[in-house]
C-alpha cells in the first residue's frame, strides 16, 4: 500500500515560503541524505508557542483552566497573567504557577499537562511545497522521513518527489541533502527512508512538465 493512503495526523499548520526558495532547492546536485544520523536525545518535553495546556489547581476547579501558549511564549490564567511558559518543562511551569498562586492560596498544588503539542521551533520539522498537508510537526524520538510522510499525508500528484531536499543546520552551517520521496512513497523503496532531526526543513518541489 502506498504511504499516500496512510492515516493523516498532525496539526495541519500551513507553512509558507517564497517560491524562490523552492526553485533554489529543486536541483539534484545535492548529496543524498545520510540514512542514519546521530540521534538527538529528548529527555523532557519543553513547552513551545502554540501548545495547549491544562493547568489544574488541586481543590480549586474555578482556578483550573485550559490555555494556549501565545506566540510570545506566555500564558494567562484566571488569577495569574503573563507567565512565561515557552522553554520550560510542564513540571517547571507548575512550580512557577505555584509561586504565583501562593499570593492567593496557601500551599497551592498545581499540575500542568500538555494536551496539544507544537513545541519550540528548534524541535519542529517543517514540511513545505508539494506535500498533501504542508505543516510544522513536533519532532518525535527516532523520527524518519517515512514518519513525516505519513503525518503530512504523502506527496501530491504534482510533486517531484525524488528532487526533494532536506535543509539541515550542522556545525553552524546550513546544508542540503536530496531525498528520494517518490521512490519511498510510491515505489515502496525502504532504502530511501532516512532519519530526520529537530529543526529540519523538508522541501518538496513541483514537477516540471
Q: How would you describe the overall organization of this protein?
A:
The chain is 15% helix and 23% strand. The chain is α+β, with helices and mostly antiparallel strands and 209 residues long. The protein folds into two domains: 3-42 and 121-204, Outer membrane lipoprotein wza fold like, CATH 3.10.560; 52-116, 2-Layer Sandwich (wza like fold), CATH 3.30.1950.10. It has a five-stranded mixed sheet with strand order 7-6-10-8-9, with helices on one face. Residues 1-27 have low confidence and may be disordered.
Strand order within the widest beta sheet = 7-6-10-8-9
Measure the end-to-end span. 27 Å
- The overall strand count is 10
> Which percent range describes the beta-strand content?
15-25%
The top level CATH class name of the largest domain: Alpha Beta
Total domain units? 2
CATH superfamily (homologous) name of the largest domain: Outer membrane lipoprotein wza domain like
Task: Spell out the helices and strands N to C.
Answer: HEEEEHEEEHEEHE
What is the CA-based Rg, rounded? 20 Å
Largest sheet: 5 strands, mixed
Put simply, the count of helices is: 4
Average pLDDT score: 84
Q: Which architecture of the largest domain does the CATH hierarchy give at level 2?
A: Roll
CATH topology of the largest domain: Outer membrane lipoprotein wza fold like
Shape: elongated
Structural class: alpha+beta
What is the share of helical residues?
10-25%
Low-pLDDT ranges: 1-27
